[in-house]
Design brief:
Two copies of one chain form a homodimer. Chain A is of the alpha+beta class. Chain A is 28% helix and 24% strand. Chain A is built from twelve helices and 18 strands. Chain A has an eight-stranded mixed sheet with strand order 6-10-11-16-15-14-13-12, sandwiched between helices. In chain A, β4 and β5 form a beta hairpin. In chain A, α3 packs across α6 and α5 packs across α7. The longest helix of chain A is centred in the middle third of the chain and has 23 residues. Chain A is elongated, with a radius of gyration of 27 Å. The two termini of chain A are 44 Å apart. Chains A and B meet through β1, α3, β6, β7 and β8 of A and β1, α3, β6, β7 and β8 of B.
Chain lengths: 478, 478
């Protein structure tokens, strides 16, 4: 087994690492009357709200380190007369010094009695985020400020926590992180429309890279070449789609996790995806419970219970043909509640079909296997039936396809036939064909859309609210 | 303190996770004569070399999980006559089954006595990587296959190990991973030339994003907006430079780690960079020693000792003005060995100056602080002397500038003046100015070029050999 990460060594901490609110709130209180610590503490953050009473100001301070605010108590008597109490407003940044006390209030167990304000930045003009709930449409127009709201600070912590646990799980299973290029000269993966790069209309040297180049729609082909040497690899990087689609599930730029494993079958690939996602979700339930409560209360009631059920329930595996049969049966059912678009063998599932499938399985994710070869790209393993390939899509409740993958066509002859069938030129992909010419091995992999995973765990309706700076057609602020 | 990562839960492992060579080689041997394990093991990998004796074939098998090969012993008698011994060649993939024995050889302590070959992929044509050393120039032409050489498999493991420890350190210090957009509509950061995106010459709707868009040269401005709400954040993502420069230190696409911390001064920022890099290098020395030995033997003799010295020696901090004085002094020294380009106050250091600086400090990294404002971007904190800004570059031996950062100009009035001085329009950056209008706080951050760090720890001369698929002017294979 790989050695575990060594503990962080005790280098001299940089001078101004003061207390994070997260650390302060985890302080235990033993004595009800005396200050928790004899020495003074300094905290810094942004004011979430101010409540003024006759002799005292209560301030809820947040520094992003955790969901909870720290209550600051500014007694008018104890404080220097020079404090400008009118400047204490939502959004203002302050640095204060004082002692921690047990709080008599029900909302918090600890509070800071402020002695000195060391720093205060009054607003230059009216602050756009007041102490009230703002619509997601409104905060989407100010992506540089929305991280100061509870929802987006929490999304940010959840993104970071999932990033950490996904990476951790894959490392623990022997996967090496690799980088795949964002700029690619392959234009034939068929995963979506492409953005061109390096074509300068004002320059005589027209192609910066010597030939047409694009932003990558998937790192898979490159990851395959690394799996055929390192056995287990994954990339985690931004991916680009130039499709002109404006839906609540699509972005022009998003993060994709792409594991690729030599010697994995498509069934192993489903197991890897299942174990990986369940590990990430269970870690989140354990360490970010307070963060998830926000979504359970305001965004999607019952999501914590849903995620608990998700972690404990095995995914279903169904053949594409079987899924079709089931959906067709549903169609003839007089009690059907959905009106579904037509669906015949050889067609891809529409959103309504995915919803019906989730109703059928009582929201248990389904790995659909062995798709008609006509609706899948050239690189998937061709089954003996000559009709299907070993593609897999894993359908999740609410978000639809969260994972898409396949067992790859590792046989030289069959790959060449597939290229011909899809009218692709082997010369353009000769390097990829090389992987089948030399030391070829069975291998599989998948792509997991990171922002859709954020949607799944938070219940957020629009994927634009699951990424810091969303990019979509006609939309790129900041 | 943040809770530590929970151990990976024991989900049912997917069916075909067989033994990695890394795990097999860490098996301890207690009995010299009997097999180490009674049960058979299966291993899979690619043949690195074959040595045939009269009654036995010795195969060095590698699966990428570690530097070392596993020795396979194929006795001609014990094996099925149907084995095609001629097909056993460098680069061929095989899956074998057998028992582990203590090896009588000096080179390895354990070997696998093969009973069955389950899978073997003979080459379709002549394998380009034979058992000999290939030039880096040659392997650069086959980036899809070079990971099957010792050097690039080792680079890949080192990249993954550094990715892991850099992430780990920042998490342990309360930094949240954030994503910054690769596609940006800011074109004024001045960090380099830009690639245009979303401008379709064939389409009537000329700007996909509704306005000119580019590939990002730095995530800093976006990261700043998140630091002003989350306190401590970092991004780790690909970054793009369209400069037409072909040097051994530049790429058109590379990975950059960008921490940004609220309330950090530029001195804190240097400490963060120093502690972070030292943690990563010391972790590497501890866990990837065998990998580093390859570079110590074949690429840069003495690099392990150099890295050990690096970890133990505090960085130097020098004012820009002080550095200049020192270099000018050197210039007048009759014993000077370098011929240096001219250097006057207000000029940037050239590579030759950086080398002279490293000679002066005996290869201890130097953080150069407080640069003339004319040679630095608009966003750096302006010192009272009205001539300098709080920019920092950290110069490393061999690779030059590994880290570039600054304390940011957080004061509204001074930022506006800087925009005017640099002839930038405030309207274009109004969102960035907003960060100074509402709840502004002192903050600092830096960018660390990941591939230059790989150069630093491996001693590799060309940065193209420190990334899987290098992109440079007129260069984008696979």
């Amino acid at each position: 087994m790989q050695a575990p990460i060594v503990p962080t060594p005790a280098y001299i901490p940089y001078s101004d690492v003061l207390s994070l609110i997260r650390d302060i709130l985890s302080t235990s209180i033993t004595d009800h009357d005396s200050p928790v610590h004899k020495q003074v503490v300094r905290v810094r953050g942004w004011i979430r709200s101010v409540r003024a009473q006759q002799q005292v100001h209560f301030i809820a301070l947040n520094d992003g380190s955790c969901f909870e605010n720290l209550q600051l108590v500014l007694s008018h008597e104890n404080n220097n007369a020079s404090i400008d109490f009118l400047a204490l407003k939502t959004g203002v940044a302050i640095e204060v010094e004082g002692k921690l006390h047990k709080s008599p209030g029900a909302k918090q167990h600890i509070e800071l009695h402020v002695q000195v304000i060391h720093y205060l930045s009054p607003h230059d003009s009216e602050y756009p985020l007041q102490k009230k709930r703002h619509s997601f449409e409104m905060t989407r127009m100010i992506p540089h400020l929305r991280v100061r709201t509870n929802t987006f600070a929490t999304i940010t912590r959840i993104r970071s926590a999932l990033y950490r646990s996904l990476n951790h799980y894959l490392h623990s299973q022997g996967y090496h992180w690799i980088n795949v290029p964002a700029i690619t000269t392959n234009d034939c993966e068929g995963a979506g429309d492409l953005f061109s790069v390096g074509f300068d209309i004002n320059s005589s040297k027209r192609h910066f890279f010597g030939k047409p180049a694009y932003l990558s729609v998937s790192g898979q082909l490159n990851a395959e070449s690394y799996a055929c040497g390192m056995s287990r690899v994954y990339s985690f990087a931004p991916i680009f789609r130039a499709d002109n689609s404006n839906t609540r599930k699509h972005l022009s730029e998003f993060w994709m996790l792409e594991p690729e494993g030599a010697w994995l079958s498509y069934h192993d690939c489903i197991s890897l995806a299942e174990n990986l996602i369940k590990y990430a979700v269970s870690t989140l339930l354990e360490h970010n419970h307070t963060d998830l409560e926000l979504f359970d209360t305001y965004v999607h009631k019952g999501i914590i219970a849903e995620l608990g059920y998700f972690v404990q329930t095995p995914f279903k595996r169904m053949e594409y043909t079987e899924v079709l049969k089931m959906l067709k049966g549903n169609e003839n059912n007089k009690n059907k509640t959905h009106t579904m678009p037509p669906l015949e063998w050889g067609m891809d599932l529409a959103t309504e079909h995915e919803k019906a499938l989730m109703t059928h399985t009582n929201n248990v994710p389904v790995a659909i296997m062995n798709y008609p070869k006509e609706i899948k790209p050239f690189y998937m393993y061709h089954n003996d039936d000559e009709r299907t390939v070993r593609g897999i899509d894993i359908i999740f409740p609410r978000v639809g396809e969260l994972v898409g993958g396949s067992e790859r066509e590792y046989r030289l002859k069959e790959l060449r036939m597939a290229l011909t069938e899809k009218k692709l030129r082997e010369e353009e992909l000769s390097w990829y064909v090389d992987l089948r010419r030399y030391g070829t091995v069975p291998h599989s992999g998948f792509g997991l859309g990171f922002e859709r995973l954020i949607q799944f765990v938070t219940g957020m309706a629009n994927i634009r609210d699951c990424i810091a700076f969303p990019r979509a057609p006609q939309e790129a602020l900041c």
